[in-house]
């Protein structure tokens, strides 16, 4: 339920409850008025009857017997009952009926007051009692009081039965019917007022929403202009303040990202350059030792070193060219590549005592120079892991055909990789070494995937690791 509908229904509900409450209050007020009227009317009739009885008794001084009371009031009691529109009865102090204006003796209702001629009421509650009875579904009020003679002695008990006036249901219905058109007009007026009030509240919000959706936070026109100084104006002003903060934050973040990108690029280039330089240095040292030892196969060694050195120098040149072009890094050139030649250009720098290869007579689809960089990283890591474990077994490189893919395995007997870290070794900037930037294996994964291949690793801590590089068969 949207904001507009909630406000609209809320306003209608308030008005409806107000109108309904007015009708209920009017009805119950009429009820209370009738109850108060009946009580006051009964009091007035009882007072009038008391005065009439006192007037009659004043004309007959002395003590009156039951028969005398009946004779005195036999005609008078009916006259009083007709004048006051009620049933008037007289009882002895013991509760026996003396005379009544009713057509028959009301034996079911005996006065709740019981006195003897010698007894004087001790409390005012014994002088007058009002009761309410239900006769055949109709409410009847009775009042009983003690009548005294001229000597202030209790003489008899008088009773008046009165049918109270009921609420005129037709009058209440007519009253409510007269209110219905007024209520209808008020309700319809409330609907119109609620509708236009909602329009005035929600239209600026919808305009604000549209302007926010269409604006570019970094554009100069993104600021929202609102001319009213109300709650929505305060919201717009706060939005503009937050927009300025967002711009400053984005600019600051962009500056740091550019600096971080340059730093990461420099680290990656340094890492790429380091990989071929290490085996080149090792190869030169071996070549120098062979020269000093006057090895008979020195010309062959020099020729092999020259070929691998030239290949690695070409890779260094390509890295520097990629770094110079930055955003326009060279796309890989996927061609048929001799696996034996590519692995030889990388493994030849380390010597046969460090790297042993076999079964590499396959052609794969890859970028030649990039693939050399892949094996530079994997072989260098494998030799380093073996040296750290103190193993004298060389790194072994094998290949086999699996369907339309060639799988190359680079295995070492090094320290291995913890299983908890094995799933993260291809993440950028994650490394298991005490040195390094954690970019080598991320670069390996990227190059292999660009050639539609994949690379996975298996390792047992303390026994060694094997990296499997799968490439499309040419």
Q: Would you mind describing this structure in some detail?
A:
The protein is of the alpha+beta class. The chain has 3 domains: 3-170, Beta-Lactamase; 220-255, no CATH class; 259-472, Heat Shock Protein 90 (2-Layer Sandwich), CATH 3.30.565. It has 10 helices and 12 strands. The strands form 3 sheets. Strands 2-1-5-4-3 form a 5-stranded antiparallel β-sheet, with helices on one face. Mean pLDDT is 78; it is low at 325-329.
What value does the average pLDDT take? 78
Q: How many domains would you count in the coordinates?
A: 3
Count of helices? 10
Radius of gyration: 57 Å
CATH A-level architecture of the largest domain? 2-Layer Sandwich
Share of helix among residues?
Answer: 40-55%
What distinguishing features does this structure have?
Heat Shock Protein 90, alpha+beta, 10 helices, 3 domains, 474 residues, Beta-Lactamase, 5-stranded antiparallel beta sheet, 12 strands
Helices and strands in order:
Blueprint: H1 3-58, H2 66-73, H3 76-84, E1 87-91, E2 97-100, E3 128-135, E4 138-148, E5 154-162, H4 169-214, H5 231-292, H6 298-325, E6 335-338, H7 339-347, E7 355-357, E8 363-366, H8 368-389, E9 395-402, E10 405-411, H9 419-422, H10 440-450, E11 454-460, E12 464-472
Parallel strand pairs: 7-9
Antiparallel strand pairs: 1-2, 1-5, 3-4, 4-5, 6-8, 9-10, 10-12, 11-12
């Amino acid at each position: 339920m949207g904001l507009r509908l909630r406000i609209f229904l809320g306003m209608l509900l308030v008005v409806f409850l107000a109108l309904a409450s007015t009708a209920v209050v009017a009805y119950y007020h009429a009820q209370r008025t009738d109850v108060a009227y009946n009580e006051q009317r009964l009091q007035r009739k009882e007072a009038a009857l008391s005065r009439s009885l006192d007037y009659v008794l004043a004309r007959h001084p002395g003590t009156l017997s039951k028969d005398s009371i009946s004779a005195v009031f036999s005609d008078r009691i009916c006259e009083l009952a007709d004048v006051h529109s009620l049933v008037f009865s007289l009882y002895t102090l013991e509760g026996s009926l003396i005379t009544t204006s009713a057509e028959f003796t009301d034996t079911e209702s005996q006065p709740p007051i019981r006195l003897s001629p010698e007894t004087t009421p001790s409390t005012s509650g014994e002088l007058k009692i009002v009761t309410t009875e239900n006769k055949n579904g109709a409410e009847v009020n009775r009042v009983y009081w003690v009548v005294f003679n001229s000597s202030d002695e209790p003489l008899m008990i008088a009773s008046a039965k009165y049918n109270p006036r009921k609420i005129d249901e037709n009058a209440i219905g007519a009253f409510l019917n007269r209110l219905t058109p007024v209520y209808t007009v008020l309700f319809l007026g409330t609907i119109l007022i609620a509708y236009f009030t909602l329009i005035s509240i929600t239209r600026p919000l919808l305009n604000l929403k549209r302007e926010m959706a269409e604006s570019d936070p970094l554009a100069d026109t993104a600021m929202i202009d609102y001319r009213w100084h109300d709650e929505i104006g305060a919201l717009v002003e706060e939005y503009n303040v937050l927009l300025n903060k967002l711009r400053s934050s984005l600019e600051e973040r962009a500056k740091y990202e550019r600096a971080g990108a340059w730093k990461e690029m420099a680290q990656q280039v340094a890492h790429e350059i380091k990989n071929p330089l290490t085996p080149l240095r090792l190869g030169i040292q071996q070549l120098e030792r062979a020269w000093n030892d006057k090895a008979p196969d020195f010309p062959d060694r020099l020729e092999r070193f020259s070929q691998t050195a030239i290949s690695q120098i070409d890779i260094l040149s390509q890295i520097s060219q990629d770094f110079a072009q930055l955003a326009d890094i060279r796309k890989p050139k996927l061609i048929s590549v001799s696996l034996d030649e590519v692995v030889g250009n990388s493994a030849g720098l380390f010597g046969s005592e460090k790297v042993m290869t076999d079964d590499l007579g396959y052609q794969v689809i890859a970028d030649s120079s990039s693939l050399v960089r892949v094996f530079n990283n994997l072989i260098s890591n494998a030799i380093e892991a073996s040296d750290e474990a103190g193993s004298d077994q060389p790194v072994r490189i094998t290949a086999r055909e699996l369907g339309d893919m060639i799988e190359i395995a680079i295995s070492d007997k090094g320290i291995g990789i913890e299983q908890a870290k094995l799933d993260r070794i291809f993440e950028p900037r994650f490394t298991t070494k005490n040195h390094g930037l954690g970019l080598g294996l991320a670069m390996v994964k990227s190059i292999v995937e660009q050639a539609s291949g994949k690379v996975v690793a298996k390792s047992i801590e303390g026994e060694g690791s094997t990296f499997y590089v799968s490439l499309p068969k040419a």
